[in-house]
Automatic annotation (TrEMBL), chains A, B:
In the C-terminal section; belongs to the class-I pyridoxal-phosphate-dependent aminotransferase family. This is PLP-dependent aminotransferase family protein. It comes from the Bacteria. It comes from Clostridium oceanicum. InterPro entries: Aminotransferase_I/II_large, HTH_trans_reg/aminotransferase, PyrdxlP-dep_Trfase, PyrdxlP-dep_Trfase_major, PyrdxlP-dep_Trfase_small, Tscrpt_reg_HTH_GntR, WH-like_DNA-bd_sf, WH_DNA-bd_sf. GO terms for molecular function: transaminase activity.
Length: 482, 482
């Protein structure tokens, strides 16, 4: 019996030895009824304490892999499996249904050019994690653990962590929203929120309106629900009203409209207060519910107050508001929420439960504690300043170096550029070779348009890289023009 | 202008004051161009420092709600919303599709008798949180935070946290499973794992086999996918082979079989090693993939080693193994995994991304750190002992007090009881009035059978309550018999 085991310092030694012997037994390398070395022998052999070996053998005994005969030592149980050379080979590819195939096909991470180390990537619109206050986060964890202790680690409720919900209700009230006939459901971020709303409200082939372009993940989720969304063109202050009216004349039975009024993804447009009211009134008159994506509205740089559309509705229940701090704060913990009519939330809660019981209660509790102590306001003040600076520099450089038809974006974490008669994927090909990547705009369009456009995410880049990257993009465009 | 604000100690005072004024402005209680009190006046009025008021006003200015005129003070911006008396009332109930309606209807939490404080509840099979080692958990958090820092709070990958996956691959190898052509996807617990597998593999009306009775959440998920599962009767050592063969003769195109071989929910049966091989071979010969639910197999009390079915398959790829520590450890953080053929996991990964991007990276990292340090082995040793004791007492008392046709369960966190010609819901009605609740067995059956059965979850009850509760159940049965 050869014990060729390398011990490391990462986990208890008795478990390492136990698992090593376990695997030898299960793989038939030690056969049934074979005698293991005595604890003394093995402790000498492996140069560990005898107690460690005793623990390791106890562990194996607990696992039912060895038994001891008094005074004779430890022996291997009969756990042999004789099917090891089995050759059942299922062609899983052929078993995947249309939904699974579409999900893979629409998974852009798998099909777009990959980022490589050292590249300047304008692809991300994630927050810069260096702005996160880790010490405050740790403090929030320790505080909530001493309050909630083990309770927070056991099952919670599908609807969410009570104190977080109460906090968010106040938070929404502070945006001017009447929450009296509404409820909040906590979700795993925006993505789950939008997914379960469509699960509950739409059927294959239904009609949904959205801005065109719009958030690519929203397009993916709509397509995975068997829906080809109808896109409405954008003016510089949001949805083009004539296009909206035209589409409403031409189409019956529209199920809902999805809107991103603030720092719209991908264009960065902020819908004007006037237009918010206009759009709200038009959709109301057609009785079409609005799914309002509160995406990054917390990031407003300027001092202009713009209320969410949900604030316009008062006690009316036609708007479902999707919120998420995770777009700017701690995306890794995946917490978003849906604020909507109580009846609707009642159904969504059951769907949520059927999909994953609930969102991590630990994460909800930490976030609650973090928010309650006023850390978000401190963070957002700092973040706004830094992102505003990046945005202004990106805009300045884009205007200077990129010959564009239009440069959009009023702040937030990205700008959007439309070129004159040049395909952005051609630009991307050239830039990729020079170590610069960005997101081609076509993925944001619902009608295969936008091949002359692209989005530059600036949140995680240094000022230097923003400048350098935009110059390279500008040069690549000039090369193509020649 | 009346400042009727109650300050608390939970969050920074300047934010409380800022939010109070914000809400007054947004609700039209302070009108545009109105002058706010000077910072000095307000600090006197509210008995807080002048700096606090200065911060509050800065906050309101950042939000675009007030502006200052040099030397004249702070004034309210024009943010009025005139739609407040709006009355758009959508009947959301009528918009919910069949899926949403079914999810609500099948949501037993909403439709079963509710637990009330002071009751003895045998409903739960969650772990007893008092066994969790909170100090070790905290240590794991602090250790992983000092290693990963802010990185762990930003976006991760759909597939899961690399180190946790590597740990779990080793963990599965240690169960004797050949992982060489397989991959792991991290999910939000078993529920999400099973849900996204069905999303990817089945279509409405497909045939799925399962044990009868089986895990009620699995039944719910199958039904929500438009599937009426075909149940196979159980012997005391697992699936009845004749029934299985009969069903396979009578049915073509069966998509897959779902199995819970260890501490089967709800019966507590452990499928014998011999039967595992038999079932495996039969399904293999029909080319029907097995979804193996590793439910609580870590809880084996006795020293008998029983390999998961996935260990029988060697390099064959016909088995998809669903694992979860969360059933016995930290259910609140919702972490499970799918081990399966690499091609399959590739699709499931895209589906996972489309549903919620990924499972909390913080939670995955903490769990990894906790496991790596050998805490799980320590915990499970303690937990096994305590649950074994509860199980043995429950069994003893059930045999003594309950006149049953059959009492099932070989360990785990529950036992399952079949009565002679008595409906368990009648028993439940009586018990409820006496402050005892349990789970009626019918919810675990796929064919409306089992109305004479019920499940007793014992994990979270004290020994005293187990005794007391079982006596009350026994008495209630006797009362009905009279």
């Amino acid at each position: 019996m050869l014990f060729d085991i390398k011990l490391d310092k990462n986990s208890p030694v008795y478990i390492q030895i136990g698992n090593y012997i376990k695997s030898m037994i299960l793989n038939g390398m030690i056969r049934k009824e074979e005698k293991l070395p005595s604890t003394r022998e093995l402790s000498n052999m492996l140069k560990v304490s005898r107690n460690t070996i005793i623990y390791a053998y106890e562990y194996l005994q607990d696992e039912g892999l060895i038994y001891t005969k008094r005074g004779k030592g430890a022996f291997v149980c009969d756990v042999s499996i004789n099917l090891k050379k089995d050759n059942w080979n299922i062609k899983w590819d052929r078993l995947i249904n249309d939904y699974g195939k579409s999900a893979e096909k629409l998974d852009i991470i798998k099909h777009e050019v990959p980022w490589k180390k050292g590249m300047i990537s304008f692809k991300s619109i994630s927050p810069d994690e260096n702005l996160f206050d880790v010490e405050e986060f740790k403090k929030s964890f320790l505080n909530i653990m001493s309050l909630e202790r083990e309770k927070i680690l056991n099952y919670g409720y599908a609807i969410g962590y009570k104190y977080l919900i109460e906090y968010l209700i106040d938070y929404m009230k502070n945006k001017g929203i009447d929450t009296s006939n509404k409820k909040i459901l906590i979700t795993n971020g925006f993505t789950e929120a939008f997914d379960i709303i469509l699960d509950c409200l739409v059927n294959k082939g239904d009609k949904i309106l959205c801005e065109n372009p719009t958030h690519n993940t929203a397009i993916k989720i709509m397509k995975l629900h068997g829906i080809n969304p109808i896109g409405i063109d954008l003016d510089k202050d949001g949805v083009n009203i004539d296009s909206l009216k035209k589409v409403l004349e031409d189409n019956q039975n529209i199920k809902l409209m999805y809107l991103i009024p603030s720092y719209h993804n991908p264009t960065g447009i902020v819908m004007s207060p006037k237009k918010r009211i206009e759009v709200y009134n038009i959709l109301k008159s057609h009785n079409i519910p609005i799914i309002e994506d509160g995406f990054n509205e917390e990031l407003r740089y300027s001092g202009d107050h713009v209320s969410p559309i949900a604030a316009l509705a008062g006690k009316s229940n036609g708007i479902v508001y999707l919120g998420s701090f995770s777009k700017i704060l701690f995306p890794g913990i995946r917490i978003g929420w849906i604020l909507g009519d109580s009846d609707l939330i009642n159904y969504l809660e059951s769907v949520k439960r059927s999909k994953n019981i609930h969102t991590s209660f630990l994460d909800q509790a930490i976030l609650y504690q973090y928010l309650k102590e006023g850390n978000f306001e401190k963070y957002i003040k700092k973040a706004r300043k830094i992102y505003k600076n990046k945005y202004e520099i990106a805009l300045k450089y884009a205007r200077e170096y990129i010959e564009a038809e239009d440069i959009l974006g009023e702040g937030g974490l990205h700008i959007f550029i439309k070129l004159k008669d040049i395909k952005s994927r051609d630009v991307l090909d050239r830039c990729y070779k020079k170590g610069v990547v960005f997101t081609p705009g076509d993925i944001f369009y619902v009608d295969n348009k936008g091949d002359n456009s692209f989005r530059l995410g600036i949140s995680r880049l240094s000022i230097e890289d923003i400048k350098k990257g935009i110059k390279i993009i500008g040069e690549s465009i000039k090369e193509i023009k020649k």
